[in-house]
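Task: complex structure prediction.
Instruction: return structure tokens for all chains below.
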Amino acid sequence: MAFKIEAFQNRFLPPAQGRVDAILSVTASPDVASGGNQVVIGFIVDKSGSMSGDRIEGVKRAVWRAISMLEEHVWFFVVAFDSSAQIILREAQATQVNKQAAGLALQGLTAAGGTAMSTGLAAARSIFARAPDAIRQAVFLTDGKNESEASTNVAEELKRCEGVFECDCWGVGTDWRVGEVQEIARAQLGKASLVPDPAGIDAAFRAAMEKASSKALKDVRLRIWTPQGAQVVFVKQVNPTIEEMTDKAKVVSAQVREYMTGAWSGGESRDFHVAIDVKVGTVGDEMLAARPSVAYLASSGGGWAEQEEKPPEARLFASWTGDDSLSSRIDNHVAHYTGQDDLAHAIQAGLEAREQGNEAAATQLLGKAVKIAHASHNADMTQRLSKVVEVLDPSAGTVRLKKDVKKAATMDLELESRTTKRVARKGAAGPPGPGGASSGST
Amino acid sequence: MTARCRAGHDSTELDYCSVCGAAMPTAAQGAAAPPASAAVGASGSRAQPAGAAATTCPSCGEVRADLDARYCEVCRYDFVSNKPGPPPAGRVAAVASPAPPPVAPAPARAPAPTPPPAGAAPAAPFAAPAAAAWALVVCVDPALDTEPDPAAPCPHGVPEEVIPLDREILVGRRDDRRDIRPELPLNDPGASRRHAKFVLNADGTPALQDLASTNGTQLNGVDTTPGSRTTLKHGDEITLGRWTRIKIRGRS
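Output:
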């Protein structure tokens, strides 16, 4: 079995209620090896005028070092864009000779011109499209606003890129728009992050290479069967980041929907929140509310084979009871991630209020965020928040807005607001992914 | 394998009905069902790069349909004297030919000059190009399109492309039906299927081989003689078709 799925829910519903809420924790087996897969990594970098100087030099160095650490079976290419795109390095295998050639080609990269991000995406797409069987991962880096084209160009290009490659994005400095870069990352199943100064590009790219070249399973899809008369209310990834997936559902059959999550590494683990409305039963009835499974492509003799795993532990139930003490309990995983969702919203709304000069609302919302972060042991978020507000009482959520806040701190907080913490497991030492924890807890 | 649930649905699952979700009569509540992992084998097959046949023209790579014919059908290369053939009597207007079928944007490429060591390495996702001392910088230049045709407008926003010039590169319009797959496929209706060819001299410097294309080729603004071969230097510019500009870049 390549995947383990655990379900966390309270199956008991009060009479006349049909909403089933559950967290599905999906973990790829650490035994899934990445060796033998075709991996293509594309670099899409900004070479507009604002990048000149330290930034373009930092990019050249970072791309070069990232390429030099690639294993020989990986393929790579480099695309640079200003108001149009240039293919700096066509796809090449990461052999010693080609790595040296990459160094030469990168030397000629200079920064000038405007910024039209869609051109870089389009150029990368045209290359990735020629390797349909490979695991296709890109890194995207910019430092400015997308000023040289209509914003709809990017949205249209992202539609064409969907399913062609995955892309993590970085913004260097603070002169770029979080929304623009996040739009690209989220459409391409990636994450947007801030690199405060050019020196940080190197570490960012190296981490990206490790992540990209470890991908072993392709086109991993969370698939959900629901009974006749039931409706999927929403499906979202809730860990490591919150990603709305409901609208991206693909209909497999009348009762089965699937949700693309992209490529996974061995040992990788993600949590999903699923809400389903089932046809209301009578007290004493029990029914299957959903049968989740994972469909994916596994490497097989140089190609890919479609697989589906449907472990019984993943099943979700609805069981009607007249006993309030059973039905009123909220499963702790569901409660935790509902809280993390509230946390993300409080941060985003709080930062927006702060931007608009509405200090009272900003103080209240960011205070609420501090309180949730504290209660859910989300120390990373508490720390990020403390760069924007002075925390007076974390458990009560009493805060005061800081006066001189670095722009990088608010951008970083906004970017990371959707990064969640897993449920703290009492006494469970070790990595995330519940070792012997009982599944299907009620 | 199907079973019938209490509501009368045919269920493909034995624990809970695959239609309505009700527990199947034989299944104890919440009982562990047999692991229901289904594996559907459907591995994609990969296209194998065709080996270079010995029956191709040494000049333009055209497949020799008739091995007894003395001249190459495309570039008129003389197989007996091993010399480029005489130039054609005149440039002939393109005869209306059936439209080529829609092609996948997947130019076939020559084998990599630096093949990876054979072993457990996975099949290459692309056929491989590699580093070269010389390169072609190919771009679509709308300024060249002096007589725009509304039916086939010049594309805009096409990225400039750098192609290592480390082997022979045929330039032209790809035509799958005729199995003409240039290493540098052009989206340019004014280009011939086998328009021109970049070749390497013995000393490694590149040269432009004119293949007597319908609409001709210009080197630095001057028409090249059909069938001629001209050594190229850094900075040379070749224009052809309606909007294709190719710059020659040497190792700096």
